[in-house]
Design goal:
Elements: E1 4-7, E2 10-12, E3 15-17, E4 22-23, E5 27-28, E6 33-35, E7 38-41, E8 46-49, H1 57-66, E9 74-76, H2 82-85, H3 88-94, E10 99-102, H4 104-114, E11 121-123, E12 129-131, E13 136-141, E14 151-155, E15 160-164, H5 181-196, H6 200-211, E16 217-220, H7 229-240, E17 247-252, H8 258-272, E18 276-281, H9 287-296, E19 299-307, E20 310-311, H10 313-325, E21 331-338, H11 342-345, H12 348-354, E22 362-363, E23 367-370, H13 375-393
Parallel strand pairs: 8-9, 9-10, 10-11, 15-16, 17-18, 17-19, 19-21, 21-22, 21-23
Antiparallel strand pairs: 1-2, 2-7, 3-6, 4-5, 7-8, 12-13, 13-14, 14-15, 19-20
Helix pairs in contact: 5-7, 5-9, 6-7, 8-13
Bound molecules: MU-OXO-diiron (FEO).
């Protein structure tokens, strides 16, 4: 990755990860990602804002060397997760004079993850002001976007805020800024769904704070920067709002097509009513696309076959993901088919709901069938479609 100038004496020096396909061994990365890092040269002091993921160390250090700095005064750590902090020990080896500026929680986590000694840290809070000469660093402690340690760093003279994970996107691109806003919107929404959606109260609060600041550039540490901050601030306001859209998602797993027939019967009835409905065949679906659909959906219907007298593990996995992501859906139901355990089959809806204590959704009438669905089951699915329609009109 090349070194790119953001403004006078401010450079983007991070690493692009074009070929990374999975994050946290969980999140698919269809467009790769980047680990953005910024070097800020004041008239008296120099600061590095975040670093990079250790596997991209060579690329990152090569960029740092290109700027030929004599000394590095500060390394700002906005977040301790190793995709941003992993290169800190290597930077400290090259620049042992540097001190790490971070908040108390991030310091604790950096010490846990990277075993950095106490004397390397200067602890900052919302009142700290660090002068670099003609530039100033200020800090906004902003926990839970993504870990409890997260913070933003503000450079008021240049009207830039460095938000680390917040408002980022997993997209590898040679473009410094979000020039192709359509593509970045999709990537940023996916990123929001996967990383930020569980923290909607904090997302709303910090988005509002940024909206009220005099900022020209939002510089996250994944994906392109925003030189039109209102683009991403308004997108975040929509995604994080409590208002769900009239949309239904049906993540499902079917073993012998009985559950599949039920899913597509319900799908047809909802479609006929003009409701946007999206099915996700769980064993073949992209987890990120399911997460994106959860950003707006008001109703989640989980479809499952039965395995060993319990919901199919793929449906349990989906329930676990839903529980973790805490979508805003107001209604939940479950449908599916079982082979022989009729005394347990009708209980699968409650079982699945039990896996999702974080989902504050009202349970609508579940529909389960012994074996292939017949007319009685299809009638119940018609009633469920009516119930969904009536609920989302409210
Ligand atoms: Fe990009 Fe939470 O780290």
């Amino acid at each position: 990755m090349a070194v790119l100038k953001v403004k006078d004496d401010i450079f983007s020096i991070g690493a692009i990860d074009w070929h990374r396909h999975l994050f946290d061994q969980l999140i698919p990365l269809p467009h790769g990602t980047s680990y953005n890092s910024f070097l800020v040269k004041g008239s008296e002091k120099t600061a590095l804002i975040d670093t990079a993921y250790a596997p991209k160390l060579n690329e990152f250090l090569s960029n740092l060397k290109k700027l030929q700095i004599d000394r590095l005064d500060y390394i700002v750590a906005n977040h301790a997760e190793p995709d941003h902090s992993g290169a800190i020990p290597a930077v400290l080896e090259i620049h042992p004079e540097a001190k790490i500026l971070t908040n108390a929680k991030c310091k604790e986590l950096l010490q846990a993850h990277l075993k950095i000694s106490e004397d390397k840290f200067i602890t900052v809070d919302n009142s700290t002001v660090i002068s670099l000469g003609n530039k100033t660093l200020k800090f906004m402690i902003s926990p839970w976007v993504h870990w409890p340690d997260t913070m933003f760093t503000h450079l008021p003279e240049d009207k830039i805020i460095f938000t680390c994970d917040f408002m980022g996107s997993h997209i590898a691109t040679s473009e410094l800024y979000a020039v192709n806003e359509g593509a970045v919107y999709e990537a940023a929404k996916r990123y929001y769904a996967e990383i930020m959606m569980p923290f909607r109260p904090q997302v709303k609060k910090y988005s509002e704070q940024l909206k009220n600041m005099d900022i020209e550039i939002i510089a996250p540490s994944h994906g392109p920067l925003y030189n039109r901050p209102e683009f991403i601030i308004s997108a975040y306001a929509d995604w994080a709002s409590d208002k769900a859209k009239q949309e239904v998602i049906i993540p499902y797993v079917t073993m012998y097509e009985s559950t599949g027939k039920m899913v597509y019967h319900l799908f047809d009835r909802l479609m006929e009513k003009g409701i946007k409905v999206t099915p996700f065949n769980l064993p073949e679906s992209d987890l990120g696309e399911l997460a994106v659909a959860m950003v707006d959906a008001n109703v989640i219907v989980l479809g499952t076959s039965m395995v060993l007298a319990a919901p199919h593990p793929a449906a349990v996995y989906a329930a676990s993901i839903i529980n973790s992501l805490k979508p805003k859906a107001k209604y939940f139901s479950a449908i599916g088919s079982y082979g022989w355990a009729e005394q347990l089959g009708d209980k699968m809806g409650e079982q699945l709901k039990g896996y999702m204590p974080s989902l504050r959704a009202q349970m609508l009438t579940p529909v389960f069938s012994k074996g292939l669905p017949g007319r009685e089951t299809f009638n119940k699915l018609d009633e469920l479609a009516d119930e969904i329609y009536n609920k989302i009109q409210e």
